[in-house]
Amino acid sequence: MSLAFDDYGRPYIILREQGSKKRMKGLEAYKSNILAAKAIANTLSSSLGPKGMDKMLVSPDGDVSVTNDGATIVEKMEIQHPTAKLLVELSQSQDAEIGDGTTGVVVLAGKLLEQALTLLDKGIHPLKISDGFDRACDVAIKHLETISEEIDIQANEHEALIQAACTALGSKVVSKRKRELGKIAVTAVLDVADLNRKDVNLDLIKIQTKTGGSVEDTRLISGILIDKDMSHPQMVKEVNDAKICLLTCPFEPPKPKTKHNINISSAEDYKKLYQQEQQYFVDMVKLVKDSGANIALCQWGFDDEANHLLLQNNLPAVRWVSGTDVELIAMATGARIIPRFQEITPEKLGKAGSVKEVQFGTSNERMLVIENCQCTKAVTILIRGGSQMIVDEAKRSIHDAICVIRNLIKDNRIVYGGGSAELACAIQVLQYADEVSSVEQYAIRSFADALEGIPSCLADNCGLNPITSVAQAKARQLQENNHRIGIDCMELGTTDMKEQRIYETLSSKKQQIQLATQVVKMILKIDDVIAPDDY
Ligand code: ADP
Ligand code: MG
């Protein structure tokens, strides 16, 4: 696009390849953007809450995944429309920052856009809508803080943390096992948490999936589990007081580069070359052993020749250790990652209490556990399940739970779920709207309506009548001045979310409302879309 001037100095716009571009301006642009983004939100809305539906997504090469996780759904939907992509990013930024609440944030953005559309139809200027939403958002956030409660994360064997984890897991495919999985997640996080600094390094929790068994067989292993075994079946199965040599160079003689030739003209020459090669192996193994290492973990492979030599020299070794495992092992055992054999020195070895092979179930498959690492504690959650689809979804769900627990360790304030927090904010925002005399009051009221959209969506998804349930909940919140009344999704007979112990972190709710408002404001600012014709 470029700006040009005609003979009279009047400006006009030149679009490159005008014929092949599509251009939308003004109201038409606003509306088309909003409709595209709303389509995404509508798809997700049926997945919200404990009775939300799952989505089955098939990738172009036929991989099937079944998931309830908002961020995963939008990521796999392969969305083309540029504004709809903003919602994908919205879900992902919630995922990156908070980890949970990735569906809710998109649904809320969708409700806000729906309201914006009606306001535009009424003839209200997009900037006024934006301003109103912004002010309402501030009010909602402030109110969230006043209704939040601090919980004691230590009390009662970390019961509050377990409950929060259960709330996060309750809407997932693995919800039947939420209590067990929640406990595993809490123990894992507390194992690696630094409670004084209120910090958790989630890199120290490795989540390993292995198909087979069932979800109940999921367990926590105190140590690093790697899905590999010793490179030779006759090597020792357990190394105690391990001194680990962590190699990122291959156990093989240097290969001639492409531009070099080796001319072998006689049997003599061949023998020499062979001997030289053998010498390389011998030297390499010697370098490792001389440093005092009693096990070698190698990011690369090595051939049978080397494997045999390692066995002969009593040096147990593991090959094809993945890059992320190498980093984790380095962090936990204090090992330096060694890229060249010449650089091996005793100080660079990592130390761990033991490295041993373990076997799971009745299958022959073995894995290695590195326990009692010298530097930091690292743990592994081994997820089992009948199929790849199940273990993948379980992994995503446990990730959500772990994030919730980490967030609570960082900031132990919670609000109650089941739509009660959103409803309480909506009531507050409505009151605020009455104090505003300018046009923005319409937008502020609409913001409150959008917030009510969350409990209404939850009710809808569990087969309740959304209008009556939200109206009843709202009436009770006002009458009893009780901000904990929400939607009784599981039909437990009480709408008080404190009694149901549905805990959500304050940080997650705040982030949801803020991010959703931000994206909607951004979409409302776009009044001109210039795109190739095939969009
Ligand atoms: P997200 O990806 O946004 O976390 P979820 O599918 O996990 O989406 O649903 C979260 C919503 O469901 C929250 O609003 C939460 O308060 C609500 N929720 C979760 N468990 C319950 C429950 N047992 N009863 C009522 N509401 C619940
Ligand atoms: Mg959730």
Automatic annotation (TrEMBL):
<dbReference type="GO" id="GO:0005832">
    <property type="term" value="C:chaperonin-containing T-complex"/>
</dbReference>
<keyword id="KW-0143">Chaperone</keyword>
<protein>
    <recommendedName>
        <fullName>T-complex protein 1 subunit epsilon</fullName>
    </recommendedName>
</protein>
<dbReference type="InterPro" id="IPR002423">
    <property type="entry name" value="Cpn60/GroEL/TCP-1"/>
</dbReference>
<comment type="similarity">
    <text>Belongs to the TCP-1 chaperonin family.</text>
</comment>
<dbReference type="InterPro" id="IPR054827">
    <property type="entry name" value="thermosome_alpha"/>
</dbReference>
<keyword id="KW-0067">ATP-binding</keyword>
<keyword id="KW-0963">Cytoplasm</keyword>
<dbReference type="InterPro" id="IPR053374">
    <property type="entry name" value="TCP-1_chaperonin"/>
</dbReference>
<dbReference type="GO" id="GO:0051082">
    <property type="term" value="F:unfolded protein binding"/>
</dbReference>
<dbReference type="InterPro" id="IPR002194">
    <property type="entry name" value="Chaperonin_TCP-1_CS"/>
</dbReference>
<dbReference type="InterPro" id="IPR017998">
    <property type="entry name" value="Chaperone_TCP-1"/>
</dbReference>
<dbReference type="InterPro" id="IPR012718">
    <property type="entry name" value="Chap_CCT_epsi"/>
</dbReference>
<dbReference type="GO" id="GO:0140662">
    <property type="term" value="F:ATP-dependent protein folding chaperone"/>
</dbReference>
<dbReference type="GO" id="GO:0005524">
    <property type="term" value="F:ATP binding"/>
</dbReference>
<keyword id="KW-0547">Nucleotide-binding</keyword>
<dbReference type="Pfam" id="PF00118">
    <property type="entry name" value="Cpn60_TCP1"/>
</dbReference>
<dbReference type="GO" id="GO:0016887">
    <property type="term" value="F:ATP hydrolysis activity"/>
</dbReference>
